[in-house]
């Protein structure tokens, strides 16, 4: 195991510091996730990140199985992350949901299982439950009870490690201070893409949009040179919790969710100057910056050239003076603007971090 490419988690397992993100919008055929994952594994990615909500785990399982079958990897070489959807926060639903993911994946265990969002929604077949008026149906669940069910998944061997996603500091402390805590979260992760596809129903689409605004369409750990999340990173490090972040390159510029006048991170003159200095792309400079701060990153691309290019992040290092310059690029700028809402008591973005 190359120590430069892995971080040790607080349960002694190791996570690859560069992950391959697999979310794709509705218009992208599921087959692309399958083929892109094969390309990523061939390129050297060993950390595959997905979620029950992405509705692509069957394709990812086929990709992983094919790479095991052709001798490229063994199962133990792959670090696979899945996530518990908001409709399955009730303790009795946690293991069955994980078992559904494992069945689709054709795997006996996941390496990391996360609570995807702290906001609970009504259980059922709909991943985005709404009433007859198109209003979202939330649920009230004590996330400490959800966490106990996650601990049982770890004890059963269905998940090697367990963690959370999109939790703020206060919510992390709620878990850490839980009486009888057996396992600390190994990480706090996040993703930009909350929904695998937009519904055709206008009422439901409006409901999705409202939820998107409520949840910020961005993780609490959106992390890049314009929003370097120093406070949250320092807090997580103090608790031996790894910060896993999307958004290292800014964000996908989806017109529906991102303002047209948002700055282009990868065109920033400072970042471009450092990239030219090191004969690298601005994207690789941004990725390298986060890695050197101890952040695990998940880079999403279905473009073969970019998938392979992202692996070059291990071929160079930024000196301290360049790291300091990029630190000063911080603007506390979120690409997806946080919108305060009190629709659910576990809404995570009212806190500073």
Automatic annotation (TrEMBL):
PROSITE patterns, alphabetized: ALDOKETO_REDUCTASE_1, ALDOKETO_REDUCTASE_2, ALDOKETO_REDUCTASE_3
Classification via CDD domains: AKR_AKR1C1-35
SUPFAM superfamilies: NAD(P)-linked oxidoreductase
One Pfam short name: Aldo_ket_red
Keywords: NADP, Oxidoreductase
Domain called NADP-dependent oxidoreductase: residue spans: 18-200, 217-330
Name of the protein this chain belongs to: Aldo-keto reductase family 1, member C-like
């Amino acid at each position: 195991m190359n120590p430069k490419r892995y971080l040790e988690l607080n349960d002694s397992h190791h996570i690859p510091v560069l992950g391959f993100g697999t979310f794709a919008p509705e218009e992208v055929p599921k087959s692309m996730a399958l083929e892109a994952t094969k390309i990523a594994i061939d390129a050297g990615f060993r950390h595959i990140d997905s979620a029950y909500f992405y509705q692509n785990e069957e394709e990812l399982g086929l990709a992983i199985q094919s790479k095991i079958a052709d001798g490229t990897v063994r199962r133990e070489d792959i670090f696979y992350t899945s996530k518990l959807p908001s409709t399955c926060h009730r303790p009795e639903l946690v293991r069955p949901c994980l078992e559904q993911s494992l069945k689709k994946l054709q795997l006996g265990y996941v390496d990391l299982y996360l609570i995807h969002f702290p906001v609970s929604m009504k259980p059922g077949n709909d991943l985005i439950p709404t009433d007859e008026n198109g209003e979202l149906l939330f649920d009230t669940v004590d996330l400490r009870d959800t966490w106990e069910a996650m601990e049982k998944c770890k004890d059963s061997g269905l998940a090697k490690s367990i963690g959370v996603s999109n939790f703020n500091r206060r919510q992390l402390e709620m878990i850490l201070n839980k009486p009888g805590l057996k396992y600390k979260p190994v990480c706090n992760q996040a993703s930009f893409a909350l929904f695998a596809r937009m519904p055709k129903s206008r009422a439901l689409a409006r409901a999705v949009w409202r939820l998107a605004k409520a949840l910020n369409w961005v993780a609490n750990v959106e992390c890049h040179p314009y929003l370097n999340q120093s406070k949250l990173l320092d807090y997580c490090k103090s608790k031996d919790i790894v910060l896993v972040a999307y958004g290292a390159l800014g964000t996908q510029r989806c017109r529906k969710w991102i303002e047209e006048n948002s700055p282009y991170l990868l065109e920033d003159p400072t970042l471009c100057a450092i990239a030219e200095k090191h004969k690298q792309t601005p994207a690789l400079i941004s990725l390298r910056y986060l890695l050197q701060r101890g952040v695990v990153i998940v880079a999403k691309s279905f473009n073969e050239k970019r998938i392979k290019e992202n692996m070059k992040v291990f071929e160079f290092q930024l000196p301290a003076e360049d790291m300091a310059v990029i630190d000063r690029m911080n603007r506390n700028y979120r690409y997806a603007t946080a919108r305060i809402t009190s629709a659910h008591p576990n809404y995570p973005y009212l806190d500073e971090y």
